[in-house]
Write a structure and sequence with these properties.
It is built from 12 helices and 8 strands. It has about 350 residues and is of the alpha/beta class. Keywords: Carboxypeptidase, Disulfide bond, Glycoprotein, Hydrolase, Protease, Signal, Zymogen.
């Protein structure tokens, strides 16, 4: 409701309007809450299941869900299938793709006709994410040269780091009231900030959605448990047991490319939580030869939408100009152009 879905919630928190840049203009879309227990999804009555929640369980549960969904709606069996995500989806998507390809190969049948994955502002490598985010802050003038020099002197961003000194260096600054998901956007919801830094983006959207999803008739229509208190993001910490997966997804992505999957990674260039700098470090670690060098790509109104480069095996990395962490929120038209190009298997217009 804030990004790529068919509807936006109006400021009254009660009514909807259509999103003309919704991704289901181009494809059938299933939205799946991950991991279990977030949003309206229900984890389990069995504490043992909750303790096993993590990357592996998320991939396995999602695969089982998709198999059952295709049995219930068999007309979709055999169709081209793509999976997309953002942020920690940089872990979810490659791992789900791995389960799908493994099960298809193991049983010598096409359970799911997976053709590719499309991941935005992803966490691909925990160490490179930390390094890249700090470098992003420095390169955009949010931390000083002295702080950055201290970080470089005390942090290798590998398991060899002395945690204490690196931690001290990495926390020796305060960037003020900056919204980390878009360093140029208003941080808080104020009437004066309704249009935000980007036309059409409203920093108060989260509150509209929260009001809407806490309406009883909406919960009933969604077949959710009624009287559920839905929150976009907890205001205070809540207990949530989760077993993380591998530190890096780079080897996993490389294997998917070698198996012939179309893998596209894109980054909004104003995000400091999963920055474009972090992603470039991980893309470099793939060690794939460049086949089509870095160039600008354009929207239909001849604006530069971002930049793109393609690598051996079709792996593609693209930036989205003027977008924060949630690319379809900040730049909905540019996100749609990129998705269209991904589904067509060709680079966006040059």
């Amino acid at each position: 409701m804030m990004e790529l879905g068919p509807f936006r919630v109006n400021p009254d928190g009660k009514t909807l309007r259509r999103n003309k840049h919704a991704w289901n203009n181009l494809a059938n879309v299933i939205f799946l809450e991950s991991p279990t227990g977030v949003g309206f999804s229900y984890a389990s009555n069995n504490p043992d299941n909750i303790n096993k929640r993590g990357d592996q369980r998320t991939a396995e549960d999602t695969f089982v869900f998709l198999l059952n969904w295709l049995e219930r709606f068999p007309k979709y069996k055999g169709r081209d299938f793509y999976i997309a995500g953002e942020s920690y989806g940089g872990h979810y998507m490659p791992q789900l793709a791995t389960v799908i390809t493994f099960m298809n190969e193991l049983h010598r049948t096409t359970f799911i006709n997976l053709r590719g994955i499309f991941v935005g502002n992803p966490i691909l490598d925990n160490y490179k994410n930390s390094e890249g985010n700090l470098e992003f802050l420095w390169s955009h003038g949010l931390i000083s040269d002295e702080i950055w020099a201290g970080i470089r002197a005390n942090c290798t961003f590998t398991p060899k780091d002395d945690g204490r000194w690196c931690s001290v260096a990495g926390q020796a600054f305060h960037i003020g009231g900056i919204y980390p998901r878009n360093i140029y956007d208003p941080r808080i919801c104020l009437p004066s900030a309704r249009e935000g830094y980007l036309a059409g983006y409203d920093p108060c959207m989260e509150y509209y959605v929260e009001a809407y999803l806490n309406t009883g008739e909406v919960q009933e229509a969604l077949h959710a448990r009624t009287n559920t208190s839905w929150i976009a993001c907890p205001r205070t910490s809540v207990p949530f047991h989760y077993n993380p997966g591998p530190v890096t997804m780079v080897p996993t992505i490389r294997r998917l490319v070698e198996r012939g999957l179309s893998v596209w990674v894109y980054s909004g260039d104003l995000d400091s939580t999963c920055s474009i700098t972090s992603t470039r470090y991980s893309v470099k670690d793939l060690n794939l030869p460049v086949t089509k060098p870095w160039r600008a790509w354009y929207t239909p109104d001849v604006e530069v939408g971002g930049y793109v480069q393609q690598y051996q095996g079709g792996f593609t990395f693209a930036s989205v100009r003027g977008a924060g962490h949630l690319v379809p929120s900040y730049q909905p038209e540019r996100a749609l152009v990129l998705l269209y190009s991904f589904l067509k298997g060709r680079l966006p217009p040059g």
